[in-house]
Write a structure and sequence with these properties.
mainly alpha
């Protein structure tokens, strides 16, 4: 047996031993983490991502955004140095959330539109959190400031575009590849029924794999949170967020909130994405020759650039203060009541103001008569 195979076998053996020890020593934490992962997947991931994954795959397969491609294809070809057929995938990757870009790249590679090297290059920057998570989730719910969420989302866009431009320039200088040399025999658009069935199958397979990974990482996070108090060993608050940010993006943003770090740290946490997201992307790209190590290097670069971009943007547009730092452990709600409750509240306020006005008039009359 060769030395690399021996090292690989030893690594697998140690990993199995560690996981078995975790399952035996922390059974309650493991089951609780898996249940939490299933709940998050059922309540958040499936309703928000599953329809969008079907839609994104359907758009790429049917070339439904052909009019948009004709408008923005010049940017795709001249700035990112990619085939114009990648325009829809670029747009969807920046508005659809983390896994959507990988799904679009997988479909483009399957159709023969892009080569493996171009797929690798697209995954350097086509991994972006969607506006729903950045603006609504972090901005409105966590920070109580929608403008802050917009700034954080813009920082992700700026970082992705910069990395895409630099990667395209480097690829052009190094490889001198021509976009018209790419084989496109299979790049024809599919029929509506065929495309819908294939898209539904893609979405179902992806969501099952994502749910399994979410449950696994949720189990590890639950064991970590309930069994270890890292604050006893590390007093530097930035370092206390390292493991949550490394592991899973939602836990990373919660750790940033709980440790009271400044606003731009949210962009750092989301810019990396967490290993849970990265393994989901790796599953979607399993049919493509793909360097996972190079991909992770660019995720680190992305989190650094997006952090700097958020810091610069917020220094110009968002007042930085304690309002963005600590919010306690209470999860804010966008609306605690419905339309009926809001209407009742307005009516009660009006009655209260009228009663005050009536009381004031009575006092004036009594004062004049006296």
């Amino acid at each position: 047996m060769a030395l690399p195979e021996i090292k690989r076998s030893m690594g697998s053996f140690l990993l199995v031993i560690i996981l078995l020890a975790i399952l035996i020593i922390f059974p309650a934490e493991c089951s609780g983490g898996i249940m939490k992962g299933l709940k998050n997947s059922a309540e958040i991931i499936v309703p928000s991502l599953f329809p969008f994954m079907i839609l994104s795959s359907f758009i790429v397969r049917t070339k439904a955004l052909k009019p948009v491609e004709s408008i923005f294809s010049v940017f795709t070809e001249k700035i990112f140095f990619l085939p114009k057929e990648c325009t829809s995938a670029l747009i969807l990757s920046f508005i659809g959330g983390f896994p959507i870009g990988a799904k679009c790249v997988s479909v483009l590679y399957e159709q023969g539109v892009i080569k493996s090297g171009q797929a690798q290059r697209m995954m350097n920057f086509c991994v972006c959190s969607g506006p729903s998570f950045m603006i609504t989730g972090i901005g409105t719910i966590i920070l109580h400031n929608t403008q802050a969420g917009v700034m954080l989302y813009l920082s992700q866009i700026i970082s992705g575009v910069l990395i895409g431009i630099i990667s395209g320039i480097y690829s052009r200088i190094r490889d001198k590849e021509k976009t018209d040399n790419i084989k496109k025999e299979n790049s024809h658009s599919q029929g509506l029924l065929e495309a819908f069935i294939s898209s539904a199958e893609d979405g179902a397979n992806s969501i099952i794999s994502m749910t399994a990974l979410i449950c696994f990482f949720s189990m590890l996070i639950c064991v970590y949170q309930n069994s270890f108090d890292i604050s006893r060993f590390i007093n530097i608050r930035e370092l206390r967020t390292f493991i949550p940010i490394l592991t899973e993006v939602t836990s990373g943003t919660v750790a940033v909130r709980e440790t009271g770090l400044p606003l731009w740290w949210y962009s750092v946490a989301v810019g990396f994405g967490g290993m849970c997201v990265h393994f989901q992307i790796l599953l979607m790209l399993k049919g493509i020759p793909f360097s996972f190590g190079k991909y992770l290097i660019f995720r680190v670069i992305n989190c650094i650039i997006s952090g700097f971009a958020a810091k610069i943007l917020c220094s110009f547009f968002v007042p930085v203060g304690e309002v963005f730092r600590v919010f306690g452990n209470t999860d804010a709600q966008v609306s605690s009541v419905g339309i009926v409750g809001s209407t009742a509240l307005v009516v009660m306020c009006a009655v209260f103001l009228l009663s005050l006005r009536k009381r004031e008039l009575c006092r004036n009359i009594i004062g004049k008569s006296a």
